[in-house]
Amino acid sequence: MASTRDDHGLDPVPQGQRAAVILWTDDTAGAYAELTASGAPALAAPHRWLDRLLIAWTADPDGNPIQIVQRLEGVPGGR
Fold it and tell me: Rounded distance, CA 47 to CA 56, Å?
């Protein structure tokens, strides 16, 4: 939970059953823009993480967080 709060600026729910859906894509910024334009809540805009991923956060209709992830090319661990 510390990473969720400290690295991504989200406020995780510490108790109860919650799920996070992780979606891998080749275009995090485009997917995030499309989802938020369609009404999905904007939890955290696309940002670099661990210097090899681009991630963003939105939520499903029940409020469960959805992480959109893209490997960055040209960095170790990327493509």
Answer: 6
Distance CA 63, CA 51 (A): 28
Give CA separation, 37 vs 30, 43, 53, 69, in Å. 10, 13, 23, 18
Report the alpha-carbon distance of residue 72 to residue 46 in Å, rounded: 12
Q: Please tell me whether the overall predicted TM-score, pTM, comes out greater than 0.85 for this model.
A: no
Question: Residue 59: in which H helix or E strand, if any?
Answer: strand 53-59
Structural contact between residues 63 and 19, judged by C-beta atoms closer than 8 angstroms: no
Q: What domains can you pick out in the chain, each with its CATH number?
A: 16-71 (3.10.180.10)
pLDDT digits (tens, 9 = 90+) for 12-51: 766 665 678 899 999 999 999 999 999 999 999 999 999 9
